[in-house]
Amino acid sequence: MHSLDARLAQALPPGTLYAVGGRVRDEVRAEFERSEPTVKDLDYVVTGVPFDELRARLEKLGRVDLVGASFAVLKVTFDGTTVDVALPRRERSTGTAHRAFEVEGSPEIPLEEDLGRRDFRMNAMARALPSGDLIDPHGGAADVRARRVDILIDRAFEEDPLRMVRAAQFAARFEYAPTPRTLDAMRKAAPLASTVSGERVAEEFTKLLTHAARPSLGLELLRETGVLAVLAPELVEGVGVEQNQWHAYDVWQHALASVDAAPRDDLVVRLAALLHDVGKPRTKEGPHFYRHEQVGAEMTHALLRRLRFSNDVVEATTHLVRSHMYAADPNLSDPALRRSIRRIGVEHLERQFALRHADIAGSGLPKRDDSNERFETRVREEVARKPAFSVGDLAIGGQDVVAAMIRSGAAQPGFRGDPRVGEILRGLFEQVTEQPERNERQTLLKLLDEHLRGLT
Q1: How many domains are there within the chain?
Q2: pLDDT one-digit tens code per residue, 229-250
Q3: What is the DSSP letter of 151?
């Protein structure tokens, strides 16, 4: 029992407090799998206590905020933690949108009816507190024991189409199999996925990609049931598109194998692994896929924008897709190596390397050699030397160039800059790329003066 359970139980009448939600499901999973449960969100339902009395009792513990009066949900903050405490609720669907429900909260609604609002049987359990007795009116524990995902009612996906993505997320995270009833309901409701907001889809996709060891299980479920064709038709284009001799799989299967091989703690790398070859079907010419990384980057950007991922995630993922065909030649000259680093971007290097390793693992063929590892070693050694990798790393800046141009007569007094300033800095940067030791203020000023004398 969580330490906050006891505090809440002491503040409420006996027999009224129940833990609900994913926490209870994960506790039951831990019992069957003989592992330690991970407690994240703490959600509670209180029965038989009028709302005003409930609020007054909870205010003795700490700060209480009401979330939607009609929903009768209270956020209670005490001991440094915020938990949700609600009256039992019943709801009636009035359409296919997430918010198309009539919701009623009342202390008189039976707990079993409140649990019946949930999406899947395994999420429709409660635990009485402080006794710890499991309340399981819908057979959730049996589903956990059988490692299956089963909907509570046949209309579950029609009432909230996002539940189809949640089904895939749970199937992948827990490696549970959807029941035939769940599969049939997903296929029938697949077109309704278009009614779900991008933000909600992105949230579930994030959980799928970062919480599951093998996201492919959930992604293939979405493809098989037709949901993916609605949410991300770009990905489905890769089904059956054969590749060259360097791949054992078609484009879709390669994407699945790559995303499974990518590090699960980095959403950007997993998204990039899933999407890095998304442009191949549109660029296929025999065994070749010319410019597929450029086309794929454009498709990635559009897809992630549509799903309302954050700007940082969109831009970083797009960059990895666009750059994933970089040449990992461990025998490059030092200047060429620095140019390669510059093209990838120092801040993207480790993610780009992780994507390359996932790409290779996802090929389905044995790794050919250690050239990638030797290239990465050289790159890391070069970065550690801290040479200039951008114009901004130069020991002089735009104002120095402006002053020198005025001093040399290349510009009139009062000159504040024009495109020539940038061109000059880029020229100096190229010289520093060739010879990093030139990135010293006096040396650059001398080179600058020599360049300007050549213009006059």
Answers
A1: 4
A2: 999 999 999 999 998 888 889 9
A3: B
Q: Rounded CA gap, 323 and 258, in Å? A: 16
The amino acid present at 328, given as its one-letter code, is A
- Give the tens place of pLDDT for each residue, 278-327: 999 999 999 899 999 999 999 999 999 999 999 999 999 999 999 999 99
| pLDDT, position 49 | 95
Instruction: Single out the residue of 273, 254, 248 nearest to residue 262, CA to CA.
Output: 273
CA distances, 289 to each of 238, 281, 325, 362, 363 (Å): 12, 8, 12, 17, 16
Q: The tokens 């791949």 sit on which residue?
A: 247
Parallel/antiparallel/unpaired status of strands 63-67 and 43-46: unpaired
**Residues written for the chain:** 456
> What distances in angstroms separate CA 63 from CA 55, 83, 414, one per listed residue?
10, 11, 61
- Domain match, 101 and 170 both: no
Q: Report d(CA 61, CA 355) in Å as an integer.
A: 48
CA 194, CA 65: separation in Å to the nearest integer?
34
Are 151 and 86 found together in one domain? no
> Measured between alpha carbons, how far apart are the two ends of the chain, in Å?
82
- Does residue 340 carry a pLDDT above 80? yes
Residue 70: its pLDDT value, please?
61
Q: Are 294 and 285 in contact (CB under 8 A)?
A: no
Distance from C-alpha of 275 to C-alpha of 79, rounded to nearest angstrom: 43
Q: The domain spanning residue 206 has which CATH number?
A: 1.10.110.30
349-368 tens-digit pLDDT: 999 999 999 999 999 999 88
Domain that holds residue 109: 3-144
Residue 267 lies in a domain: yes
> What is the reported pTM?
0.89
pLDDT digits (tens, 9 = 90+) for 166-202: 999 999 999 999 999 999 999 999 999 999 999 999 9
Only one residue has tokens 């709801």, namely: 91
Structure tokens that stand for 218 in this block: 């959930």
Q: What is the CA radius of gyration of the chain?
A: 29
- 425 plus 401 within the same structural domain: yes
CB atoms within 10 A of CB 19: 25
